Amino acid sequence: MTEDESERPSRKRSPWGAIALVMLTGLAMMRNGAEVDAGPPQPAAAAAVGAAATVGSQADRMPAEPPMPPPDLEVLEHSSVQRVRIPSISVDAPVMTVGLDAQGWIDAPPPQERNLAGWYLNGISPGQQGSAVIVGHVDNAQGPAVFFGLGAVRKGSRIEVARYDGRTAVFEVYGVEVFAKNAFPGSRVYGDTGHPELRVITCGGGYSKAGGYDGNVVVFARMVEAR
C-alpha cells in the first residue's frame, strides 16, 4: 500500500455478515505444509475447538462488561492503516489494505509474506467508532507467521495501530477466544459496541492436514488512547 491510499475518501462499511463469511472461508487458512511441532499457542485452556462455538476457561473469556474508555477519549476519523504492534508477543508488522476476491470475500494477505497483516479498506478504521478488523496468517510453508503468537495475548495487553494520518490508536485487550469456524458468531465479533474497538484474527484451534485449522483465534480490544 502506498501513502496515497490514505487520502482516499471514507468508504461505506460492509455489513458484518460479509466479513463473517470470509472468516469461514478465506481466513480458514491452512498451514500449507508447515511443520511446527507444538503448534501456535492458544488461549488458556483452549488448545482445540470442540463442538461448541467457543472453548476456554471462563477466566479467559470476554467479560460481559468491557472496561470503559477514558471519558475524554478522542474518536478518530477514517484513515488507512500503516502498522500494527503487539509488544507482548513481539509483533511489529506493516499492514496492507485488502479488498474482495472474485467470490466476494475479503482477501487475506499473501501467505508467502510472513510478517504482514491485512486491514479491509472498506471497513472501520482503527480508532473510528465500531469494530475494526486486522487479520493475518498464523503460519505458512516456511513456519510461524505474523500472528503465530496471538493466542498468547492476555487481558490488559496493549495493541498499537499506526495510521497514515500520523495518528496512533492504542487498544487494550479485554478478551481472547477461539471460535469454531462452523459456528463463528459474526454479530458478537463484528457488532458495533458504541466504542472504537479492534478485532485481531488468525487461525487456531485444532489442526489436521486434511482440513487445516478448525477455528479462529479472536482478540477483542477497546481503544484507550489516541496519540
Q: Please, could you describe this protein's structure?
A:
The chain is mainly beta and 227 residues long. It contains two helices and eleven strands, in the order H-E-E-E-E-E-E-E-E-E-H-E-E. The chain is 6% helix and 34% strand. It is globular. The model is unreliable at 1-36 and 45-64 (pLDDT under 50).
Summarize, please.
It contains 2 helices and 11 strands.
Count of DSSP H/I helices:
2
Per DSSP, what share of the residues sits in E-state strands of 2 or more residues?
A: 25-35%
Q: Briefly note the structural class of the backbone.
A: mainly beta
Distance between the termini: 23 Å
Q: pLDDT under 50 segments (min length 5)?
A: 1-36, 45-64
Care to count the β-strands? 11
| Major sheet | 8 strands, mixed, barrel
Order of helices and strands: HEEEEEEEEEHEE
Shape: globular
Give the fraction of residues assigned to helices: under 10%
Strand order of the largest sheet: 2-3-4-5-10-11-9-8
Query: How much is the average pLDDT?
Result: 76
Which value, in Å, is the CA radius of gyration?
A: 16 Å
Search tags:
globular, 2 helices, 227 residues, two-stranded antiparallel ribbon, disordered N terminus
Map the helices and strands:
Blueprint: H1 16-24, E1 54-55, E2 81-86, E3 91-98, E4 117-120, E5 130-136, E6 139-140, E7 143-144, E8 158-163, E9 168-180, H2 186-190, E10 196-208, E11 212-226
Parallel strand pairs: 3-4, 5-10
Antiparallel strand pairs: 1-9, 2-3, 2-8, 4-5, 6-7, 8-9, 9-11, 10-11
